[in-house]
């Protein structure tokens, strides 16, 4: 064969090869997934290009439960809650308590350290405790810790002591109190300072339900209430500053015991009748002594180590610079 013939044959082979290659490429790019042989979907998605990748993605997508006429995920009438990918906020389980209570849907997360610090501050402010500086042997008898902080004042000390002791009482240990003013058979209203003193002493006020215009009672009413403690305020001529004789106080005490039906009252049977001077109601530091007296009269064991007479002396000297001169209260039961 001549050289020209060889060149013609080579050119024909090249053209044939190009034609075959072009035909395969065109067929491959034109295949739809449903026309292709059964192959692995993942492999087909990687090998196909152009429109075939879109078709593969549409084939792999799973229909939502609400399609085909059923309830949709976005429907407010859906039978169960679904995650909405268009929602502005996602609530993660366990983080509800970190939401800000002041807004709806807007939460402000708080770290554990911040929450712990806040709780610590609240606990520190929740209860005030104080301790009196006393000799070691007295501290051991009173149960006072030797390393306790020193109270800023006797008023702080006795107030904190009273709160601590009364907060430990069970309900069955809280007695009811009948409070009578210097005027016989006249009790107090629930808005009075005396009512607050009773409550702060860990007791209940039997006259708390009386109306302000019905504070005058009789012996029958008192007997039916059967108070565990009777507190009678008396004039400063009977108990108070400059009074050192107990004769008038004892006479007043006997008059109370002699009232009709009082021999059956728990307060009388247990000798929990307390006479106090009206002067003890004049100042806050003196009112603290009244609360100590009521608390000790009602709960002798709980307040066994507390001396109201020593408290009165310390509080009065702190407030006025002078000692108490006189007898301010009386009870048949010694401290």
Strand order of the largest sheet: 2-1-3-5-7
Broad CATH class of the domain at 171-331:
Alpha Beta
The biggest sheet, with number of strands, parallel, antiparallel or mixed sense and barrel status, is: 5 strands, mixed
Give the H and E element order.
Answer: HHHHHHEHEHEEHHEHHEE
- What percentage of the residues does DSSP assign to strands (E)? 5-15%
Could you say what the CATH topology of the domain at 171-331 is called? Rossmann fold
CATH homologous superfamily of the domain at 171-331, by name?
A: Nitrogenase molybdenum iron protein domain
For the record, the CATH architecture of the domain at 171-331 stands as 3-Layer(aba) Sandwich
Total number of beta strands: 7
Structural account:
This protein is of the alpha/beta class and 335 residues long. The protein has a domain at 171-331: Nitrogenase molybdenum iron protein domain (Rossmann fold, 3-Layer(aba) Sandwich), CATH 3.40.50. It has helices spanning 3-29, 41-47, 51-60, 112-126, 136-142, 154-167, 193-200, 219-225, 247-257, 266-269, 284-298, 308-320; strands spanning 176-180, 204-205, 229-234, 240-241, 273-277, 326-327, 329-331. The strands form two sheets. A five-stranded mixed sheet has the order 2-1-3-5-7, with helices on both faces. Helix 7 (193-200) links the parallel strand 1 (176-180) and strand 2 (204-205). Helix 11 runs antiparallel to helix 12 (308-320). Mean pLDDT is 73; it is low at 23-85, 87-112 and 114-148.
């Amino acid at each position: 064969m001549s050289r020209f013939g060889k060149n013609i044959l080579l050119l024909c082979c090249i053209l044939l090869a190009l034609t075959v290659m072009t035909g395969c490429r065109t067929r491959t790019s034109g295949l739809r997934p449903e026309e292709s042989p059964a192959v692995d979907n993942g492999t087909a998605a990687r090998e196909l290009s152009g429109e075939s990748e879109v078709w593969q993605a549409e084939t792999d997508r799973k229909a939502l439960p609400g399609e085909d006429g059923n309830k949709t995920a976005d429907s407010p009438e859906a039978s169960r809650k679904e995650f909405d990918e268009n929602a502005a906020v996602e609530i993660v389980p366990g983080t509800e308590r970190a939401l800000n209570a002041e807004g709806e849907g807007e939460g402000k997360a708080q770290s554990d350290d911040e929450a712990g610090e806040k709780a610590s501050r609240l606990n520190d402010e929740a209860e005030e405790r104080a301790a009196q500086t006393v000799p070691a042997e007295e501290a051991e008898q009173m149960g006072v810790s030797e390393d306790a902080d020193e109270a800023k004042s006797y008023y702080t000390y006795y107030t904190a002591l009273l709160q601590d002791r009364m907060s430990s009482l069970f309900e069955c240990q809280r007695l009811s109190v009948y409070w009578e003013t210097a005027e016989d058979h006249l009790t107090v209203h629930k808005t009075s300072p005396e009512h607050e003193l009773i409550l702060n002493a860990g007791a209940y006020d039997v006259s708390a339900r009386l109306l302000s215009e019905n504070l005058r009672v009789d012996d029958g009413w008192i007997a039916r209430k059967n108070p565990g403690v009777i507190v009678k305020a008396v004039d400063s001529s009977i108990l108070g500053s400059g009074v050192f004789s107990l004769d008038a106080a004892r006479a007043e005490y006997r008059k109370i015991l002699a009232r009709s039906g009082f021999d059956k009252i728990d307060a009388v049977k247990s000798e929990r009748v307390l006479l106090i001077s009206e002067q003890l109601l004049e100042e806050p530091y003196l009112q603290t002594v009244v609360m100590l007296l009521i608390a000790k009269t009602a709960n002798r064991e709980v307040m066994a180590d507390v001396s109201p007479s020593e408290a009165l002396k310390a509080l009065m000297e702190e407030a006025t610079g002078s000692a108490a001169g006189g007898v301010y209260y009386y009870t048949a039961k010694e401290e």
